[in-house]
Design brief:
Blueprint (H helix, E strand, L loop, with lengths): L17 H10 L7 E4 L2 H10 L4 E4 L5 E4 L2 E4 L3 E3 L14 E5 L7
Antiparallel strand pairs: 1-6, 2-5, 2-6, 3-4
Length: about 100
């Protein structure tokens, strides 16, 4: 389809993941929050402690979530201390970042 205008070029989809975006942002000298990508539950608590106990999790790429027959997107979610050691973290890579939002506890 050579005459079709692509808003998001299909060959660039590989760049639509958080690690690629964070790398591009850092290389462009943008401010990037402290970030941990891991599947080791034991790594999360020390990272959270370094972040003053305020961390969030984000999906690594565009993921559509289906639950109870309804489709939706997964968004940034605050991670409370009781989930820092969750053994399910070992099932796949997770992205954790310092939560810089104001007024959020």
């Amino acid at each position: 389809m050579p005459r079709v205008l692509w808003v998001n070029r299909p060959e660039r989809n590989a760049d639509c993941t958080k690690p690629a975006q964070l790398t591009a942002a850092a290389e462009s000298r943008l401010s990037v929050p402290e970030t941990l990508i891991t599947n080791d539950p034991k790594a999360v608590r020390p990272f959270a402690d370094e972040c003053g106990g305020r961390i969030v999790t984000k999906v690594l790429g565009g993921i559509v979530h289906t639950e109870d027959g309804k489709r939706g997107q997964l968004y940034t979610t605050r991670v409370p201390p009781e989930r820092w050691d969750d053994p399910r973290i070992a099932l796949t890579a997770h992205l954790f970042q310092r939560d810089h939002r104001q007024g959020v506890r």
